[in-house]
Write a structure and sequence with these properties.
Strand order of the largest sheet: 2-1-3
Order of helices and strands: HHHHHHEEHEH
Radius of gyration: 21 Å
Distance between the termini: 15 Å
Largest sheet: 3 strands, antiparallel
Structural class: mainly alpha
Helix content: 55-70%
Shape: elongated
Number of helices: 8
Strand content: 5-15%
Length: 201
């Protein structure tokens, strides 16, 4: 196992994934490229929590930057000992793992609940329009497996169901990869603490 090579590869990849996580979450705040829904608070609460920003993004960046600096032997990281650097990498990678796991869970809940939208609600007095989560009360019928519901249930924002599905799914995929990489970085740092950095000649 080549610790230095792994650090030079995994660090930048994790950094890119963190940026993609933030971008995917930001897209969830602007359904159909409209900003007024955010201004009126008509956005799904799981998107408003912004797990892709803090969980899949900001908590991942320190580990990505630190492990990259070790792999490329930046001068700012040469002052401390090898084990100290690797221990810090373990701690930061652990935070990245927790952040991406939290984002994964919240994104999964957001995908299950469906979007916050304007839909037709049937009451004893007739039909009325209201803002809410129409797919939560559908019982055993799962909207994820019935694309015909994606355009027939929500009236506004336009195509919000597909928007919600695509970007929450993107967050799930990104954070699965982040969790795997963070776990690999922890193992890589443990190996490096005991064996030191290796370098191809």
């Amino acid at each position: 196992m080549c610790v230095g090579t792994c650090a030079r590869t995994l660090g930048p990849v994790l950094l890119i994934l963190g940026l993609l996580s933030i971008i995917a979450n930001l897209f969830l705040l602007f359904p159909s490229w409209k900003s007024h829904y955010l201004n009126m608070g008509q956005i799904a609460k799981r998107a408003m929590v912004m797990p892709g920003l803090w969980g899949g993004g900001l908590l991942v960046f320190p580990a990505a930057i630190q492990i990259t600096s070790i792999g490329w032997r930046w001068s700012c990281c040469n002052s401390s000992g090898n084990c100290q650097k690797m221990f810090l990498s373990i701690v930061l990678s652990g935070l990245a793992l927790l952040g991406s796991a939290a984002c994964f869970i919240i994104s999964g809940v957001g995908l299950t609940e469906g979007p916050f939208c304007l839909y037709v609600f049937t009451t004893s007095q007739g039909k009325t329009k209201e803002w809410g989560y129409p797919f939560i009360d559908m019982g055993s019928q799962n909207y994820l497996y019935d694309p015909s519901l994606w355009k027939s249930v929500c009236i506004e924002p336009q195509n919000v169901v597909a928007w919600n599905v695509y970007f929450f799914s993107a967050l799930l995929i990104i954070n699965v990869v982040e969790m795997i990489l963070a776990a690999l970085l922890i193992l890589n740092s443990c190996f490096g603490c005991f064996c030191g950095l290796s370098k191809k000649k």
